[in-house]
Amino acid sequence: MRVLERENLQLAIGSVIVLLFLVFKGNMAYASTNITCETNFGEKSFTIEDNSVAFHQDNIDGRSISSIGEAKSQKTHTGFKKTMYLNGNKHYIYIHNLEKLSSNNDFLAITSPKGHKMTYPINCNIAQ
């Protein structure tokens, strides 16, 4: 009887260890990922790094970073949400699935202080 209880306990502990490994493995991949995104017609482009978002601005010599801001992040089951305020506007970035980035599911929504909202589908790539 004791041998059976010990085997059940070892099986339960092993299952918990495997589950924790899978959870932390997913979090580690998310934490070290740099993602570059652009709206369909190139109106907005930005790079997502850990807890910050860098928006880019076109200039004569090419693309340059125009502003970097800290973003509040929230992980979802397969992706994440980021919220930040830039020039008085609320920027909300939603990535549905990190494994399958898609402009059908991923978007940038910008809300002005007066409540006017523009939503842009975004095309993203994971930078290596």
Could you name the key traits of this structure?
alpha+beta; 128 residues; elongated
Can you give a write-up of this model?
It is a single chain. The chain is α+β, with helices and mostly antiparallel strands. The chain has two domains: 32 residues; 95 residues. The chain is 23% helix and 48% strand. The longest helix is centred in the N-terminal third of the chain and has 30 residues. The N and C termini lie far apart (53 Å). About 4% of the residues have low confidence.
| Number of E-type strands | 9
Question: How would you sum up the major sheet?
Answer: 9 strands, antiparallel
Number of helices: 1
Percent of residues in beta strands: over 45%
Structural class comes to: alpha+beta
For the record, give the distance between the C-alpha atoms at the N and C termini, rounded to a whole number: 53 Å
N-to-C order of helices and strands: HEEEEEEEEE
Compute the number of structural domains.
2
Q: Compute the average pLDDT.
A: 80
Residue stretches low in confidence (pLDDT < 50, at least 5 long) are 27-31
Assembly classification:
single chain
Helix content: 10-25%
The shape, in one word, is: elongated
- Rg: 20 Å
Identify the strand order in the major beta sheet: 4-3-2-1-9-8-7-6-5
